[in-house]
Amino acid sequence: MPISIIKAYVKKFDKITIDSNTLSKYYGKLKGWLFTLFKFAILLGLSYIILGPLINIFSNSFFSSEDVYNPAVFMIPIKPTLNNYHLALLRLDYFSTLGHTLIYIITITLIQILITSMVGYGFARFDFPLKNLLFGCVIITIVLPTHTIMLPLYQHFRNWDLLGVFRLLGMKPINLLSSETPMYLMTIFGTGLRSGLFIYIFRQFFRGLPKELEEAAFIDGAGPWYTFFRIMLVNAMPAVITVAVFSMVWQYNDTFYSQLFTMPTDHILTLRLSTIQATLEFIDEIKDPMVSQLAVYAGTILIILPILVIYLLMQKYLVEGIERSGIVG
Amino acid sequence: MNKRLTLKQRNAIVGLTFILPWLIGFLIYYVGSLFLTIQFSLSKVIIGKTGGYTTSFIGISNFKNALLVDPNFNQILVNSIIDILIDIPFIIFFSLFIAILLNQKFKGRAFVRAIFFLPILLTAGAVQSSLQLATQHIMGGASAMMKELTPSSGVNVNYFLGIFQELGLPSVLVDYVTSLVSRIFDIVRASSVQIIIFIAALQSIPNSLYESAKIEGATSYEIFWKITFPMVTPLILANVVYTVVDSFVNSNVVELAFNEAFTNYNYGLSAAMSILSTVAILLILGLITLFISRRTFYYN
C-alpha cells in the first residue's frame, strides 16, 4: 500500500477520534444535566413532604371560621384573620409561659453540659476498677426505653425522701411532682433526658483529644479539676455545641417526662398546647372542633417559632460539631 | 497517713469522683427503678390515698393478663414491632441516600439541609398531632382530586397497582412498597437525625481514598460500594439502634402502658406491659446488632 493512502487513513482516524471525543463530552454533559435534574426533583419532592403539612398549618392559622367550611378556599384564605393568633396568645399565656419554658430548658441544658461532660471525661481519661462494665451501663441507659422505669420514678418523686433521712427524722416525705424539680434532680445525677447519649458523645470527643494537653497541664501543677474546666472543656467546644443544641431541642419538645411528672402547664409551653383545645371549648365556648383547631394551628406556629430561632442560630455549627465530636469513629 | 497512694490509685479516685454524679443517679433511678418495676409486675399494687402503695406477690398473673386477657396489648405490640422492622431498612437507606445528596456541593445546600433537619424540631406531642391533621388534609385533598380526575383523564391508580401485582412480583414486596408509600410522611420525618449522622460520617471519609480510586479509574458505582459504603457501616449500626429506640418511644405500646398506669391505676399490668415490650425491643436490637456487626468494616 502506498504510504500516502496510509497517511490519509491515519488522518481519517484522527478526525474520528476527535469527533467521538466531542460526542462523549456532550454525552457526559447530558448525563450530568439529567442527574442534576433527577436530584433536584427528588429533593424538591421530599422537601414538600416535610414542608407541606407545615405550610398547611401556617395558611390554616389565618383562616376565619367561614373559610373552614368554604369548599372554594384552598391554602389562601378569603377572609384572613389574626383572630386565631390572638386567641392562641391569650390562652397559651404565651409570653409568660415561654419565659418559664426558656428558663427551664436553658438551666437544664447548662446542667446537662456540665454533668455529662464531667462523666464523659471521667470515662475517657481515667482508669478505675469496673470501668468497662460501668460504661456498658451508660450504653444501657441509652438503649433502655424510659417507660420501663416510669412507675417507680413517679412513686419515687411522689414520696421523695433523701435516702431515708426524712423518715429517720420523723418527717413526711415530700411530694416533688407538679414541678420541674424531678427533672432537675435527674439531670444533676446524669440520668436526664438522653443524658446517656451525651455522655457517650463527650467520651468519644475527649478520647480524640491529644493526651499531651493534660500532661503539660499536670507538669505545670494544675489539678485534675482545673485541667478539666480550664483546658479540656474549652477544647471540647464542638461537642458542647452539639450537646447544647440537641439537649435544648429535645427538652423543649419532651412531653413524656413533663406528663409523667405532671409539670405545671403554665410553665411548659408544649404541654400547654395539648390542653388548649379543651380550654377554648370551655372558656371561649368554641364548640366546633374545626374552628378551635384553627387556634391550635396558630399555637403550633407560635410554639415552633422560638425553637426554630435557636436552631437557625446554631445550625451552622451543628453538622461541624457532630463531625468533630467524634460520634463518627 | 503513712502509706501514700500511688499515682495510679489517685487517678482512679479522681476518675471515680468525675463519674460520681452519674453513678449515684444510675443506682437510684435506673437500678432501683428496674427492680421496682419487676416487683410491680409480679404483684398486685394497691395505691393508698396519700400516694403510698402496698404490694402483694401474685406471681406471673400480670403477664398472663397482658398477653391473654387484655384485648389490645398483643395486637399493638406486634403491630409496632412489624412497623419498626418495615421502617428500619428503608429509613437507613433513605437517610444514607439523602446524606449523599446533601453532602455534594450545590446552590442552596444550606437551605435544603435546614429543611431536612427541620423535623427534629417538630417532635412535641401537640405539634405532632397538628402535623398529623394537616397531613390528612393534604392526603385527603390529593385523594379527592384523584377521584375527580379519574373519569376525565383516565388515570386510574388502582389499575397501576393491578399491573404491579400482575407483573408477578411477590405480593410481600408489593405490600412492602405500598405500605412504605402510604407512610412516607412519617418515614421522612423520622429520619432527620440519621441524615445528620450520615452526613458527618461522609465528611469524615478521607479525601485521599476517593482521589486514588479516581486515578485507578473506578466508576462512581464502584466508588460507592467499595469506599463510601464500607466507611459508613459503623454508623449504620448506630443509626439502626437510634431508629429502633426512637420509633419505640413514640409507639402506641408506650401510650398503652402509660394509660394503664395513670388512668386505670393498674400498676402491675402496666409494669408487665413495659417489661414485655422492653424485652421484645432488646431482643430485636440484639439480633440486629449481631447481624450487622459481623458485616461492619472498621477503618482503623
UniProtKB/TrEMBL annotation, chain A:
<protein>
    <submittedName>
        <fullName>Multiple sugar transport system permease protein</fullName>
    </submittedName>
</protein>
<keyword id="KW-0762">Sugar transport</keyword>
<feature type="transmembrane region" description="Helical">
    <location>
        <begin position="228"/>
        <end position="250"/>
    </location>
</feature>
<keyword id="KW-0472">Membrane</keyword>
<feature type="transmembrane region" description="Helical">
    <location>
        <begin position="133"/>
        <end position="154"/>
    </location>
</feature>
<feature type="transmembrane region" description="Helical">
    <location>
        <begin position="294"/>
        <end position="314"/>
    </location>
</feature>
<feature type="transmembrane region" description="Helical">
    <location>
        <begin position="183"/>
        <end position="202"/>
    </location>
</feature>
<keyword id="KW-1133">Transmembrane helix</keyword>
<feature type="domain" description="ABC transmembrane type-1">
    <location>
        <begin position="98"/>
        <end position="314"/>
    </location>
</feature>
<keyword id="KW-1003">Cell membrane</keyword>
<keyword id="KW-0812">Transmembrane</keyword>
<feature type="transmembrane region" description="Helical">
    <location>
        <begin position="101"/>
        <end position="121"/>
    </location>
</feature>
<comment type="similarity">
    <text>Belongs to the binding-protein-dependent transport system permease family.</text>
</comment>
<dbReference type="InterPro" id="IPR035906">
    <property type="entry name" value="MetI-like_sf"/>
</dbReference>
<dbReference type="InterPro" id="IPR000515">
    <property type="entry name" value="MetI-like"/>
</dbReference>
<keyword id="KW-0813">Transport</keyword>
<dbReference type="Pfam" id="PF00528">
    <property type="entry name" value="BPD_transp_1"/>
</dbReference>
<feature type="transmembrane region" description="Helical">
    <location>
        <begin position="33"/>
        <end position="55"/>
    </location>
</feature>
From TrEMBL, chain B:
<feature type="transmembrane region" description="Helical">
    <location>
        <begin position="12"/>
        <end position="32"/>
    </location>
</feature>
<dbReference type="InterPro" id="IPR000515">
    <property type="entry name" value="MetI-like"/>
</dbReference>
<dbReference type="InterPro" id="IPR035906">
    <property type="entry name" value="MetI-like_sf"/>
</dbReference>
<feature type="transmembrane region" description="Helical">
    <location>
        <begin position="265"/>
        <end position="292"/>
    </location>
</feature>
<feature type="transmembrane region" description="Helical">
    <location>
        <begin position="180"/>
        <end position="202"/>
    </location>
</feature>
<protein>
    <submittedName>
        <fullName>ABC-type sugar transport system permease subunit</fullName>
    </submittedName>
</protein>
<feature type="domain" description="ABC transmembrane type-1">
    <location>
        <begin position="77"/>
        <end position="293"/>
    </location>
</feature>
<dbReference type="Pfam" id="PF00528">
    <property type="entry name" value="BPD_transp_1"/>
</dbReference>
<feature type="transmembrane region" description="Helical">
    <location>
        <begin position="223"/>
        <end position="245"/>
    </location>
</feature>
<keyword id="KW-0813">Transport</keyword>
<dbReference type="InterPro" id="IPR050809">
    <property type="entry name" value="UgpAE/MalFG_permease"/>
</dbReference>
<comment type="similarity">
    <text>Belongs to the binding-protein-dependent transport system permease family.</text>
</comment>
<keyword id="KW-1133">Transmembrane helix</keyword>
<feature type="transmembrane region" description="Helical">
    <location>
        <begin position="76"/>
        <end position="102"/>
    </location>
</feature>
<keyword id="KW-0812">Transmembrane</keyword>
<keyword id="KW-0762">Sugar transport</keyword>
<keyword id="KW-0472">Membrane</keyword>
<keyword id="KW-1003">Cell membrane</keyword>
<feature type="transmembrane region" description="Helical">
    <location>
        <begin position="114"/>
        <end position="135"/>
    </location>
</feature>
